[in-house]
Amino acid sequence: LAKTTQPISMDSYEGQEVNITCSHNNIATNDYITWYQQFPSQGPRFIIQGYKTKVTNEVASLFIPADRKSSTLSLPRVSLSDTAVYYCLVGDRVSSGSARQLTFGSGTQLTVLP
Amino acid sequence: GAGVSQSPSNKVTEKGKDVELRCDPISGHTALYWYRQRLGQGLEFLIYFQGNSAPDKSGLPSDRFSAERTGESVSTLTIQRTQQEDSAVYLCASSIQGQPQHFGDGTRLSIL
């Protein structure tokens, strides 16, 4: 069972790039890494998913080194509205149909300051 | 389009009572997940349904917790003889098999 570790909190200023790292030393071969964003009183919202190397979409990039024991979510030019909790999830995409327990990290509270 | 819907949004009940929480997944999503989130904490996996396969119940904390799903539609999470430590937000998510999860906004359960 892959356990994940993230910083509890981070502060940044508007317009800066923010990098949040998640450690997952026991990641399994079939595990993907997914990041979610959560605002108060809402459910988490999908940001990005990857398996290895680098993935980029319209809101973020995800960097995964060759050993896959960590991953880094990169948010370019953050704004005040990016203040939220960010979760790293490691788990099987269950594409095989088998069920696996999914492990969310404890989350990183990102606070963007003006 | 419609997202994952959970009801009620808030539930207050007395210790010892049974509660039933409902989740309506996105149409066509074969996978459904339940999580528990205590105040200020991360998400704790409870149970996973995938199509007609046997559910993965490995995250259920005790035999007071159970969940059912009818086909690929509605799911209910039942907590019997509620305890104060059951107070939390219960989140439901659904997905197409192998794809990222879509979450509802949860049911905030308070046990008095």
Protein architecture, described:
The complex is a heterodimer of chains A (114) and B (112). With 114 residues, chain A is mainly beta. Chain A has no helices and ten strands. In chain A, strand 5 and strand 6 (61-64) form a beta hairpin. Mean pLDDT of chain A is 89; it is low at 95-99. Chain B is mainly beta and 112 residues long. Chain B is 0% helix and 47% strand. Chain B is built from no helices and ten strands. Chain B has strands spanning 5-7, 10-13, 19-24, 31-37, 43-50, 65-69, 75-79, 88-95, 102-103, 107-111. In chain B, the strands form two sheets. In chain B, strands 2, 4, 5, 8, 9 and 10 form a six-stranded mixed β-sheet that branches. A four-stranded antiparallel β-sheet of chain B has the order 1-3-7-6, with no helix packed on it. Chain B is globular, with a radius of gyration of 13 Å. In chain B, 38% of the residues are buried. Chain A binds chain B through residues 34, 36, 41-46, 49, 87, 93-95, 97, 99-107, and chain B through 4, 31, 33, 35, 41-45, 48, 50-51, 53-56, 58-59, 91, 93, 97-106.
List the helices and strands and how they pair.
The complex is a heterodimer of chains A (114) and B (112).
Chain A: E1 9-13, E2 18-23, E3 31-38, E4 45-50, E5 53-56, E6 61-64, E7 70-75, E8 84-92, E9 103-104, E10 108-113
Chain B: E1 5-7, E2 10-13, E3 19-24, E4 31-37, E5 43-50, E6 65-69, E7 75-79, E8 88-95, E9 102-103, E10 107-111
Parallel strand pairs in B: 2-10
Antiparallel strand pairs in B: 1-3, 3-7, 4-5, 4-8, 6-7, 8-9, 8-10
